Design the sequence.
């Protein structure tokens, strides 16, 4: 049953890894602006479509 | 052709519609922006949002000061000579198209390496190569595409701002520890006499101890310091019983696991801190794009143009000395008091007084800081430095250095005094009782009482109720600085209003005509002549006149600051000041008037009145039974008769009030015990807003800056003021009811504590249960309140 020591150690390490990830995220400023990223992530597609359009017109 | 809306900005195209690329544009500016975007493959801008743009303004020479090295150093966050990083505030940011185009700035100029928008704060963070594009060029580029940054004196002083993220860290740590401790303590809740559990429980307990350390010493630190500060100034605030509870929880639990007496209360301890911080976080609703701390600095420019020996040099406004010759361009703000030397001065003092009608000044007239030049450029001589100017002097008053929150005792702190005394006496009585019956349990009972009576639910009632009210008010365009303002608003008994810009509207004016009736052809001529002028009075009058056919004029002249002259066929018309149309100036006129003469015969005049906001009279009559009402105006008493008709008879009307008169008036009433709500708008109300118990700034456009205040109310919602005050009072009632509920929980808990049978599992159930039920109750109750407001 001493395996519980290993299990505890692993579970706590995993928890601490996530905790550190959280701290890094806060430090990088991910919690400073909770609105703009939600809009920004929708942009990528739009950019691609314009590029394609311009490409096709050029090819024509 | 019908009515077309501009493809770029959405305004209706009135005069000269431009047709380009199958799209309509209202002006050349809008068309140019479209051209820039279409050349650079950025027309996607128009796909996301219909007509998202703004018409670019004339900025020639306005940003010359940005070539000054010192100013660049102050404004940039990072500057190694080549790469520079700057954060600019852009008030026009309002939709996803704005974010998109601003984050694609590098397509417009290769010098920009990265740009990131913060939508909530309406700022853009730009990294650029200074040898490709200078800061000045960058600002000009932004202005050219309709996103003119707002650079004020405030940026100059603060420069780099740091964001305070401690609360998020603390909340994260408390939540992390709470979750893990909950897991680790779970097996022992059932008290199974099991072999494995017996063997490993010590390990589990010491792990819990380890998790609780950062919670007590980092996350819960504020409660100890606040309690200490409170005790030092002899106030029993709510943090005293909380700190006591935390301390007892931690010490008792540590002793228990040390001597193997029990499993301790680490679950309740971490949970308690987590819930308390959650309450704090919830209450901390901030409107990133609004500032409640503004003073003149956020209105004033960083630099102006100084004229010396025929050369123009940008000069930092703090460096302006008496006697300096300054050039003020169109749309620029006058930074210091001075004398007009030459040029057409038409000064808009709306920042200062709320009065939007520009004032005409002659050479030699005195100019006051805070006015905005509206017609062309002018030259002036400084008479004072920035700090000594008439307007800015107001900020040397002590009111601006005292914190209103410190003076106010919140409801929670009022109740916590009695609560703490009651808890301590119960603890002592119970301990004494057990000392005589079973001395071994006495210490146990003493600590149990302090643990269970820890006023978690009481401490949560106010933050959740008020935090939710802040959100509800925010949706209704009533933006409040912090939660304690709602409590203060509920106690108000006197309401004082500013007049111009507050109860009158800046946009709408009422016009009445007196004189000989104009014939139909004269009216056509009048309207056609007005159409060509951009003067605010002409625009206002043009919009009010009936629709007529527009005729093209044979001749049109605009005499700046005097009037307009137009001819059509054999008829001529003069529109403007009395002297311009050939009418002797009548006795000092109090209100603004536009005189008309046709073919050199005087016809009459249009008089402009302030239009009062909708529902004003109704609002005052609703407020009348419960509050003392007064109007403090900086203007003359030309409107007195009108106001008397409109408002309840006992409303006090006081005119000709200087900024510090307003402040003193409020101070005087406060000394007589009145709780004053001041409703104002301009910088001249700033002193009164700061002195009052609650200062509300009225704003027609919340993106435009309002002076320092406790709350900002959208002008269209002024008529709801009564409902908002009543809602704050209901919110206080909700808090009181929550206190009653949480006291019930405390009584149940105290029963277990006093009888000496408090198990960790009971504490672990009771603490979250009471907290969560209070949160649910306050949230539901405030939402019902919010529904009623809608």
Sequence:
């Amino acid at each position: 049953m001493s395996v519980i020591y290993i299990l505890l150690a692993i579970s706590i390490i995993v928890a601490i890894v996530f905790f550190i990830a959280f701290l890094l995220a806060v430090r990088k400023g991910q919690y400073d602006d909770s609105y703009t990223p939600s809009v920004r992530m929708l942009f990528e597609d739009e950019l691609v479509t314009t590029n394609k359009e311009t490409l096709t017109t050029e090819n024509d | 052709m019908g009515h077309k809306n501009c493809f770029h900005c959405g305004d209706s195209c009135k005069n000269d519609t431009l047709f380009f690329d199958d799209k309509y544009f209202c002006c050349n500016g809008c068309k140019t922006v479209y051209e820039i975007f279409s050349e650079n493959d950025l027309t996607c801008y128009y796909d996301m949002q219909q007509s998202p743009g703004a018409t670019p303004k004339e900025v020639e020479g306005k940003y010359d000061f940005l070539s000054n090295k010192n100013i660049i150093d102050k404004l940039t966050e990072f500057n190694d000579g080549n790469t520079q990083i700057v954060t600019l505030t852009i008030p026009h940011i309002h939709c996803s198209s704005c974010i998109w185009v601003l984050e694609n700035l590098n397509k417009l100029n290769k010098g920009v390496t990265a740009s990131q928008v913060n939508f909530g704060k309406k700022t853009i963070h730009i990294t650029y190569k200074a040898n490709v594009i200078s800061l000045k060029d960058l600002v000009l580029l932004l202005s050219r595409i309709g996103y003119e940054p707002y650079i004020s004196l405030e940026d100059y002083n603060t420069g780099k701002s740091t964001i305070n993220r401690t609360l998020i860290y603390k909340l994260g740590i408390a939540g992390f520890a709470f979750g893990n401790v909950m897991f680790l303590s779970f097996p022992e809740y059932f008290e199974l006499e099991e072999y494995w559990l017996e063997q490993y429980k010590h390990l589990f307990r010491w792990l819990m101890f380890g998790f609780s350390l950062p919670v007590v010493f980092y996350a819960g630190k504020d409660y100890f310091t606040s309690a200490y500060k409170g005790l030092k100034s002899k106030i029993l605030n709510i943090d005293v019983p909380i700190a006591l509870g935390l301390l007892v929880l931690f010490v008792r639990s540590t002793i228990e696991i040390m001597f193997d007496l029990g499993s301790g209360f680490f679950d309740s301890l971490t949970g308690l801190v987590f819930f308390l911080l959650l309450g704090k976080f919830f209450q901390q609703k901030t409107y990133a794009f609004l500032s409640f701390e503004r003073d003149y600095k956020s209105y004033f420019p960083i630099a102006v143009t100084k004229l010396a020996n025929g050369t123009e040099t940008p000069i930092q406004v703090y460096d302006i000395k008496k006697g300096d010759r300054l050039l003020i361009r169109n749309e620029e703000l006058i930074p210091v008091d001075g004398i007009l030397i030459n040029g057409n001065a038409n000064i808009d003092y709306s920042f200062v007084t709320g009065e939007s009608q520009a004032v005409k000044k002659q050479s030699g007239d005195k100019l006051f800081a805070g006015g905005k030049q509206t017609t062309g450029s002018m030259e002036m001589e400084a008479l004072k430095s920035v700090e000594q100017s008439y307007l800015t002097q107001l900020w040397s008053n002590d009111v601006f250095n005292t914190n209103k929150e410190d003076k106010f005792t919140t409801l929670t702190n009022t109740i916590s005094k009695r609560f703490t005394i009651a808890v301590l006496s119960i603890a002592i009585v119970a301990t004494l009782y057990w000392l005589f019956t079973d001395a071994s349990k006495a210490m146990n009972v003493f600590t149990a009482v302090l643990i269970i009576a820890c006023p978690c639910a009481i401490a949560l009632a106010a933050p959740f109720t008020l935090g939710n009210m802040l959100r509800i008010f925010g949706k209704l365009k009533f933006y409040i600085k912090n939660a304690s303002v709602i409590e203060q608003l509920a106690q108000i008994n006197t309401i004082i209003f500013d007049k111009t810009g507050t109860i009158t509207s800046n946009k709408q004016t009422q016009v009445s005509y007196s004189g000989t009736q104009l014939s139909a052809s004269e009216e056509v001529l009048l309207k056609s002549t007005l159409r060509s002028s951009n003067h605010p009075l002409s625009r206002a009058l043009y919009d009010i006149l009936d629709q007529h056919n527009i005729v093209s004029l044979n001749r049109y002249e605009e005499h700046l600051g005097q009037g307009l002259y137009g001819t059509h066929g054999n008829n001529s018309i003069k529109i403007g000041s009395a002297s311009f149309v050939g009418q002797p100036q009548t006795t000092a006129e109090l209100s603004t008037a536009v005189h008309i003469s046709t073919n050199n015969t005087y016809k009459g005049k249009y008089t402009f009145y302030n239009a009062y906001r909708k529902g004003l009279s109704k609002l005052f009559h609703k407020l009348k039974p419960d509050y003392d009402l007064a109007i403090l105006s900086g203007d003359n008493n030309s409107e007195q008769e009108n106001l008397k008709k409109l408002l309840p008879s006992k409303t006090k009307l006081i005119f000709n009030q200087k900024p510090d008169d307003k402040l003193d008036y409020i101070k005087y009433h406060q000394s007589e015990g009145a709780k004053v709500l001041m409703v104002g708008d301009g910088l001249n109300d700033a002193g009164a807003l700061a002195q009052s118990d609650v200062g509300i700034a009225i704003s027609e456009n919340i993106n435009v800056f309002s002076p320092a205040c406790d709350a900002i109310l959208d002008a269209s919602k002024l008529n709801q003021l009564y409902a908002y005050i009543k809602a704050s009072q209901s919110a206080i009632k909700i808090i009181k009811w929550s206190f009653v509920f949480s006291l019930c929980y405390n009584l149940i808990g105290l029963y277990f504590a006093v009888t000496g049978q408090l198990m960790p599992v009971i504490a672990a159930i009771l603490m979250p249960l009471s907290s969560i039920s209070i949160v649910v109750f306050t949230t539901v109750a405030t939402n019902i309140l919010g529904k009623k407001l809608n």
